[in-house]
Amino acid sequence: MTAFASIRDLTVTYRRDSGEVAALKTISLDIMAGERLAVIGESGSGKSTLALAIAGLLPASARIDGRIDWFLRPSSTLGAKAPPLSGRTEGGVTELQPFKSEIGKIPLGGRDIGFIFQDPSASLDPVMTVGKQIAEVARAHLDLTWPQAYAKAKTLFERVRLPDPDSALRAFPHQLSGGQKQRVAIAAAIAAGPKLLIADEATSALDTIVQAEIVALIRRLVAEDGMTLLFVSHDIALAAELADRIAVFRHGELVELGTTAQIVSVPTQAYTRALLDAHIGLDAEPLLNRPRLDA
Amino acid sequence: MSLLAISNLSRSYRRGGKTIVAVDDVSFHIEPGETLALAGPSGSGKSTIARLVLRLIEPDAGRIEFEGSNFLALEGSALRAPRTRLQMVFQDPLAAFNPRATVARVLDDPLRIHGIASRSERPRSIAALLERVGLPADLTARAIHEISGGQRQRVAIARAIATKPSLIVLDEAVSALDVSVRGQILELLLDLQRQERIAYLFISHDLGVVRAIAHRIVLLDGGRIAESGDARAVIDAPQSAIGKALLAAAPRLHRTSPQDT
Amino acid sequence: MSPLRRLLRTPEAVAGAIILAALIAMALSASLLFPGDPQAIAGSALLPPFQDWSLPLGTDRLGRNVLAELFHGARTSLAVGLAAAAAALAIGAVIGTLAGFAGGLADEVLMRITDAFQTVPGFLLALAFVSVVGPSLGIVVIAIALGTWPGPARIARAEILSIRERDYVASARAIGMHPLEIAFREVLPNALPPVLAMSSVIVAAAILTEAALSFLGLGDPNRVTWGGMISEGRAVLRTAPFLSIIPGLALVLTVLGVYLAGEGIAETTAVRRGLS
Fold first, then answer.
1. Cβ contact A186:A85 at 8 Å
2. Is residue B15 classed as helix, strand or coil in its secondary structure?
3. Element holding A272 (H helix, E strand)
4. B194 at the A interface (CB within 8 A)?
5. Who is most buried in A12, A135, C55, C247, counting CB within 10 A?
């Protein structure tokens, strides 16, 4: 396997009132081409910061040190205008300035990298039909006419298995359920045919059944399009179901990186062990049956 | 006699001209010191039932008996007294507290309102409550937004147990917590249950957690009861369609055959 | 003191704060610098400014010291502006809170009353009120507040309606807190900041309304007001325009200062909310 992106000594510092907070501390990590890599950790582990840094979506107030080298083959539509998906991606290229890109080119947010956020409502415009929003993304990235863009949107809605794609095109976000909105957000993320799909807690706000459906959808899309997946989650079991490799983060540091089987079965780090132990699975011994600690 | 007996409870609401039946003819009971889990997908009516039980909203039909009396008949100040016996812990501990509150104020409220401790005794009572939930007493002066999520949920539990309730409704009370913290909070809840014989109405979509902590389970689907019984028995071999779907969807660390669609 | 420091980082806020500080200094020092009745005759009539340094801004038609009048007028303007705004915010907050909380019929009745007040132009209402009851400082304050409270009332009600659905209000009900305590301790303090954000606009409008009332001769006759000064100067607008221009400038600067300071405060609180 060849590396897709190579992260070296990445440090991200946020400025707060109380001083500087390091969200990531000298992280080095290779993302392999075509792999499904899960990044897991608890709150404050820096896992979301990593996802945002890779996508070039960190706020301007964040200080970034280190480098990310990309090994992208120049795409055929290089040079086509690629306006950002949302205001947050603005300056995605300039924010990457500290990074050196030796081989290939710096990826474009929205085109080479698709990003799925936790809350789909926040990434969808409430007063625009979702069909138009997806068509707009397709138009912007792929230089399509409006009719072509709408046709593309419909194809995308079929791919993300939205029930009744035709009426979904004309729906407003508030008319869709949480799971359907997340499917629309996924359609937007894959509209331009990205090589890397980043899902940042993309299923955390959904219930178990919808979560399983969305995870299955992401798995299928990644396989069909040969995308590389970065799956950020707090749930080690969910990560284990989806990922080839798991990176465990804690307090801004990479604790352990290994194949899913190794991380789940023979973790080398105590923290990984603790995370596994803390998982309450369907086969766990009920707490009710445990003897009282103080008895 | 059951601690809480709910019979034929229904509640619908209107949204955008359509009537949605959130809770449809639901009956169940909870015994003292017991944990009953309400599980189901989103929109199954779990949280609506929680709010109905607490009289935060009113049912369209049905009966709620709490500690032997008709809970729905109580109004105004007559309702405030039994509220000491029936408490709630919310999913998001940050949203469940006044953004201006300090830990001391949050714990002072129930003690003051129900005259549980005099003004001079209250600092001692608050310190005792904090100790009871495993928090240091010097946390009192801190603002709610300054403490960690796990600490906040402990404060929420301290507030709930301040009035010595017989039943606490836990609405996804551990869902938003980090896994390591979640285990500690579950231990704390079990510990409180054993020592004070508190019953829990435990609302969760996580069958793993439900199986670990609940005695019995009521599985809801579309506002109706799909299945109920012993928590382990139901979760290990669900009979209803929704039970099977929930079980299949639960993430597992070691799945023998990966599921693909 | 970090909010204050943050406030002073925005240039508009600094400009506003300087103007307001100067104004308050004027108002506070008026009776020290110009003891006695500012309406007493101080020299020959219609002395232009910068001629006699004991009367730097000259005298008016009756030979009154314009500078002294300006200082004393600052008092009236500020006092009436602040008092009227405070009264409008208080009335608005209470009515909005009651309507938002009570809901149902009480909400309907209160909001229709609010509508009624809002549809009548505030200035006309003040005019009518003062001409019926008679001009005095207190009446002018009430008259201005009468036309201004519906704005804050509407915002307060909207905030209350949103906040009363939050979990912490449910939590307060679950522990058996009295509805009045929930309203005034849990909900109101969190609903007020957006209402208070209107205060700069309200203060500025109140100062202008007071000036307009005085201009029309409906101000407190026993006090010097800038509106009254402009009105006085109008008679000799051709020969002594400074008599209208000087209090006019003072009025413009005051409203600008209040507005800039208010914007600055609103901006810093918005930034703080965004960060947290």
1. no
2. strand
3. helix A270-278
4. yes
5. C247
- Residue B176 gets the label, from left (phi > 0), alpha (psi -120 to 50) or beta, of alpha
Residues of B in contact with A249 (CB under 8 A): none
What residues of chain C have any CB closer than 8 angstroms to a CB in chain B? 166-168, 170-178, 181, 186, 189-190, 276
Using CA atoms, how far apart are residues B244 and B237, in angstroms rounded to an integer? 8
B255 touches chain A (CB under 8 A): yes
Measured between alpha carbons, how far is B135 from B159 in angstroms, rounded to an integer? 13
Look-up of token digits 């909001």? C111
Rounded to a whole number, what is the distance in Å from the CA of B178 to chain A's nearest CA?
Answer: 6
Between CA A139 and CA B155 the distance in angstroms is 51
How many beta-carbon pairs below 8 A join chains A and B?
120
pTM: 0.80
d(CA C193, CA C265) in angstroms, rounded, equals 11
Burial class (CB in 10 A: 0-12, 13-18, 19+), C118: middle
Instruction: State ipTM.
Output: 0.87
Take residue C133 and report the two structure tokens written for it.
């009851």
- Residue B72: C-alpha distances to residues A207, B11, B55, B59, B114 (Å): 31, 14, 8, 9, 21
The two three-digit tokens of residue C84, written as one number: 């009227």
Give the model confidence (pLDDT) of C17-59 as tens digits.
Answer: 898 899 889 888 888 888 877 777 777 777 777 777 777 788 8
User: Between B182, B191, B211, which is nearest A282 by CB?
Assistant: B211
Q: Do residue A210 and residue B42 have CB atoms under 8 angstroms apart?
A: yes
> Considering only residues 76 to 95 of chain B, which have any Cβ-Cβ distance to chain A shorter than 8 Å?
none
**Residue A58 identity (one-letter amino acid):** L
